[in-house]
Amino acid sequence: MPGPRTIEIPEAVLLSAQSLDDLEDWLATHDPEFLTQMRRIRRDEDLTGQGKDLTEILKRWPTKS
User: Fold this and answer.
1) What is the DSSP annotation of 5-55?
2) Based on CB atoms within 10 Å of each CB, which residue in 6, 32, 35, 56 is the most buried?
3) Which of 56, 59, 43 is nearest to 35 (CA)?
């Protein structure tokens, strides 16, 4: 897994986030690597009935909350 990265978060996002979950959702939807992985999983696994539990996937994308 790659090391820590710096991501610029717009002030409006920080001010409007109601919780850390909101902020994590925004970060995930703006992370090209995460989006690529989710698209691959959906294409290769979910649509063939070989999907994995979301908790297993999220273990590869740890957060501090």
Assistant:
1) ------HHHHHH--SHHHHHHHHHHT-HHHHHHHHHHHHHTGGGT----HH
2) 35
3) 43
Distance between CA atoms of 23 and 9, rounded to whole angstroms?
Answer: 9
**How many whole angstroms separate alpha carbon 61 and alpha carbon 34?**
8
Q: Looking at the domain assignment, is residue 49 inside a domain?
A: yes
In a domain, 1, yes or no: no
Q: How many domains does the chain have?
A: 1
User: Could you tell me if residue 63 is inside a domain?
Assistant: no
Q: What is the pLDDT of residues 34-48, one digit of tens each?
A: 889 888 888 887 677
Residue 33 has pLDDT above 90, yes or no: no
The percentage of residues in the chain with a pLDDT greater than 90, rounded to a whole number, is 23
58-12-35 Cα angle (round to 5): 30
